[in-house]
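Hey, resending since the last one bounced:
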Amino acid sequence: MSVMITVEFRIKPEKVDEALEVMREGLPATRNFQGCQSIDSYFDKKNSSLFLVEFWDSLDAQKKYLKWRLANSGESVNNSIAANLFEPPIFKIYEPMPEL
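The structure tokens again:
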């Protein structure tokens, strides 16, 4: 059963351009990862916040992706992303509720 995952990146205002460029370069690989159905991105200019809405085949597929991303992006890229943020990304997981 598919899941929706939201991820919020609270970006330091002086780092917005750099952070968005890192995302532009990285999101195509995410979208092409097995189990990723779609990713839409939204940006709140007032609060320098990037919000991703992701749909995955399963939570396991998204967890495999995160493990792959951490292993394959390299420490310098992961540290670069972290340096652009006020705090670690905020992940929320939503499961379908067809009975509602």
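Residues 5 and 93 are 5 Å apart (CA to CA).

Sorry for the duplicate.
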